[in-house]
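Moderator note: this is an archived Q&A kept for reference. The question asked for a predicted structure of one protein chain; the sequence and the answer are reproduced below.
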Amino acid sequence: MSSINKNIDLDSLYRKVIMDHYKNPRNRGVMQDESDIKINMNNPTCGDRIQLQLKVEDGIVTDVKFDGEGCSISMSSASMMSQAIKGQKIEKALRMADVFSKMMLGEDYDDTGLDLGDIEALAGVAKFPARIKCATLCWKAMEKGLHEHEDHEH
C-alpha cells in the first residue's frame, strides 16, 4: 500500500473518531451536585460555546462534564478531553493541555507517560489554522479552571 493510501485511510479513521465523539459525546451534561470548578468560554469568531465543570479531590480530577454548542471539532475535542483528564492528577491534565496546544501549533511535543487516547485524531486540525481555536477552546477552559483552583488552594 502506498503512503498516500495509508494517509487517506488514517484521515478517514480520524474523521470517524471525531464524528463518533461529536454524535456520541462522552461526559456531556451538567453535574447535579455542586462542581468545584465551573468555566464558561466561547469562541466569538465561530460561535462555539462551552461550559465546563470539574470536580477535584486531593489534586485529582474526579469528574468532568461539559455542555455547550459548536462545530464537530469543538464538541468532539471537549468529549475527548473529558475522557482523557478524568481520574488524572491536575499536573497531568495540565501537561496534556500543553501537549495538545503544541500538537495544534505543529510544534514538537513529548507525550511520554501520557495516554492521549482518541485525541491524536485531532492532529490534522493543525493544517487548518481557522479551526485550531475550535479544537483548543475546551482545553483553554480546563487550564483556566485548574489554575484558578490551584490558586485558591494555596
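Archived answer notes: The CA atoms of residues 9 and 62 lie 35 Å apart.
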